[in-house]
Amino acid sequence: MIADNKLNNLLDIDQLSKNDILYIFEFAEKLSSILNGSVKKVPVLRGKTVINYFSEPSTRTRVSFENAGKILSADVINVSSSGSSDEKGESFINTVQTLESIGADILIIRHSDSGAPYFVSRNIQIPVINAGDGSHAHPTQTLIDLYTIYKSIGEIEGLNLTILGDNIHSRVSRSAVLGFSTMGAKVTFCSPTTMNANYLSENDVNNYPSIMYTSNLKDALSDSDLIMTLRTQFERKASLVFPNINEYTRMFKLSNESLKYAPDKARILHPGPMNLGVEIDGYVSESDRSLINQQVMNSVAIRMALLIILIGEHTLDSI
């Protein structure tokens, strides 16, 4: 358990047990009181340097990690591939080793190549947090989603989660399957058959939990407690796996009309950014059933908790 054995890196959610996840929630809950206070600053990580290395564009993830570090009084440095020595031909591993050598205490990395954070963690001595790698994993987003449900609904075990949309390209969906299954939820993927990542269940090497697959939106939503819609990732050539955007939105968009298939208790999630009118309508994302704004608000507390657990010297009781 994290409380007894310090976490060295966070590369994907499968590193964490249910008790580990609940322990992170305890940290986040305590840190939320700081975020809601009049002075949003504590010296917990004073003297520590946090580096955000993002080779892909990001707003929510990068800014929330930056804010988390600054609230904890760490020095935060943002680095992107554009304008760095990458453009001069320096190798990726030389770049991150340089960042370690100049005094970084932790590296937050987002990279377009799946597996990049794993490669980095084997070649530097400081902790690494995966802030999203290719189409592979996004563990901190899953912790945010789980924490949002935990705060809003309570017990996650026994809930039915439907992940709706482009799961074949989505790192969020892969981590969500692991995280929600660890907490005892059941997961269904719903999308056009060309966008359903069936191979996750077919390949035993992945050791993925059981997933239900369907291309029937009505069937998928009929027993849903939670509905997570995914952005259609056009930058990863998602448009090549469905014939027509208008047909896709007609059959799979979450709208007031399609929500009639779901129970009234069903709550809505979206990891962002949203393509409004494609995978979800704006009035649905802003409805009383939506937890999307809460996801954003909870992101800083979860990432603060992870920074303290990985590089802080404080226990839950000493914050």
- The count of domains is 2
Corresponding CATH superfamily of the largest domain: Aspartate/ornithine carbamoyltransferase
Poorly predicted spans: none
- Mean pLDDT across residues: 89
- In the CATH scheme, the class of the largest domain would be Alpha Beta
N-to-C SSE string, H for helix and E for strand: HEHEHEHEHEHEHEHEHEHH
Global outline:
globular
Radius of gyration: 19 Å
Number of helices: 11
Largest sheet: 5 strands, parallel
Which CATH architecture of the largest domain would you pick?
Answer: 3-Layer(aba) Sandwich
End-to-end CA span: 20 Å
Write out the strand line-up for the largest beta sheet, numbering strands in chain order. Answer: 7-6-5-8-9
Which fold name corresponds to the CATH topology of the largest domain?
A: Rossmann fold
Specify the helix fraction band. 25-40%
Number of strands: 9
Structural class: alpha/beta
Strand proportion: 5-15%
Write up this protein:
With 319 residues, the protein is an alpha/beta fold. It folds into two domains: 13-137 and 299-318, Aspartate/ornithine carbamoyltransferase (Rossmann fold); 139-295, Rossmann fold (3-Layer(aba) Sandwich), CATH 3.40.50.1370. It is built from eleven helices and nine strands. The strands form two sheets. It has a five-stranded parallel sheet. A four-stranded parallel sheet has the order 2-1-3-4, sandwiched between helices. β6, α7 (199-202) and β7 (211-214) form a beta-alpha-beta unit. α2 crosses α11 (292-311). It is globular.
